[in-house]
Design goal:
By secondary structure, this protein is α/β, with parallel strands linked by helices. It is about 30% helix and about 25% strand. The strands form 3 sheets. Strands 1, 2, 3, 4, 5 and 11 form a 6-stranded mixed β-sheet that branches. The chain has a 5-stranded parallel β-sheet with strand order 8-7-6-9-10, with helices on both faces. It has a 5-stranded antiparallel β-sheet with strand order 14-13-12-16-15, with helices on both faces. The longest helix is centred in the N-terminal third of the chain and has 16 residues, at about 45-60. The radius of gyration is 23 Å and the shape is elongated. It starts with a helix and ends in a 5-residue tail after the last strand.
């Protein structure tokens, strides 16, 4: 299933999965975007069908990455994300520092304006894509992408409306719109009259940005990007490690090792991954040190899905680490020939 996961996240930017951690059918995995299950080692029975329903419901309800409980069932839900895209609609004076800060924060940057001289390489050297076109053509020029952050900073409510009516019909992680109270009100009234619901309009951050009192373009850009970072980090995500993805695409057997829970201090967070080849080689990281060494050594011989808890407290447990805390690690055998 990992091949499918990485294919979808490359195309769409986000994908959700869930896996049962306990019970007779531990290891049952669900991929939401294709509505499919991986049932290696299980047989079709009434219990399995019930657990498929539980798993599917848990994935649909989860907002991020973490362990959920449904009765006696434990489920690890992951939201994978890759290449967050910052899409700036309007190439004015605020857009330039927004693009600069976005680049520093690791976003893929797209800038679009209906004026060719406002989307030049000289104005936006850090942009990955510079698009000239009427805002009504947004959907034709910018593909839909789930992990997308839209910043609407056009020069008037006509441009804002054109952008908003298209953004609201596609997935997004964030949609913010700059403007005075009057400009925002006019745009909202227009969209309501066109049939958009109040619930849809409530998803728009308008006025855009955190209220830090910014006046200069760079200060406004800081408030916008601060709000975007706040939204991006509201829930735990599993950010794709390129080395781990490359190992999966080699289509060789191994074990995926993932931190699914952490308590106290630990070097890496929930969703961190390491792939262990059958010969003991590893790519990725779950924190380094003795934990990673012990988990890597154990993973070589793993034959079925299981979890293990590692103590990190100094002088506590088997590892004697100084971080303080525990991590719970999921081991998943990966056998490409069975997928």
């Amino acid at each position: 299933m990992y091949q499918k996961i990485y294919d979808i996240v490359e195309k769409k930017g986000r994908v959700k999965t869930g896996i049962l951690l306990n019970g007779e059918n531990a290891g049952l995995k669900y991929l939401a975007e294709e509505d499919c299950f991986e049932c290696s080692g299980t047989s079709e029975n009434a219990l399995l069908q019930n657990e498929k329903t539980i798993l599917k419901n848990a994935v649909s309800q989860a907002a991020g990455t973490g362990v959920m409980k449904a009765g006696e069932q434990e489920i690890f839900v992951e939201t994978y994300e890759k290449n967050p895209r910052l899409i700036i609609l309007g190439g004015g004076h605020v857009s330039q520092p927004v693009a600069e800060i976005g680049r520093l924060l690791g976003f893929h940057i797209t800038v679009m304006d209906d004026r060719a001289d406002f989307v030049t390489k000289e104005r936006f050297p850090e942009a990955d894509e510079r698009i000239t076109g009427d805002f009504e053509t947004l959907s034709e020029k910018i593909p839909s992408y789930q992990n997308a952050y839209y910043v609407v900073v056009t020069r008037g409510h006509m441009g804002d409306s054109a952008c908003a009516r298209q953004i609201l019909k596609r997935p997004f992680a964030y949609f913010g719109m700059i403007g005075s109270k009057t400009k925002v009100r006019i745009t909202r009234e227009k969209l309501l009259a066109e049939g958009f619901t109040q619930e849809q309009l409530d998803q728009i951050h308008a006025p855009i940005g955190l209220p830090i009192g910014g006046q200069m373009p760079a200060e406004i850009a800081v408030s916008i990007m601060a709000e975007i970072v706040q939204e991006k980090n509201r829930h735990f995500r599993t950010y794709c490690d390129e080395d781990v993805e490359a190992a999966i695409r080699c289509a060789v057997p191994g074990t995926m090792v993932t931190i699914i829970e952490k308590k106290g201090s630990s070097p890496r967070g929930t969703g961190s991954k390491m792939f262990v080849f059958r010969d003991g080689r590893t790519v990725g990281s779950i924190g380094g040190g003795k934990v990673e060494f012990e988990a890597g050594k154990y993973a070589v011989n793993v034959k079925e899905v299981e979890t293990h808890i590692y103590e990190l407290g100094q002088g506590i447990g088997e590892l004697g680490m100084i971080c303080g805390g525990t991590v719970r690690v999921l081991f998943e055998p990966v056998n490409p020939e069975q997928e």
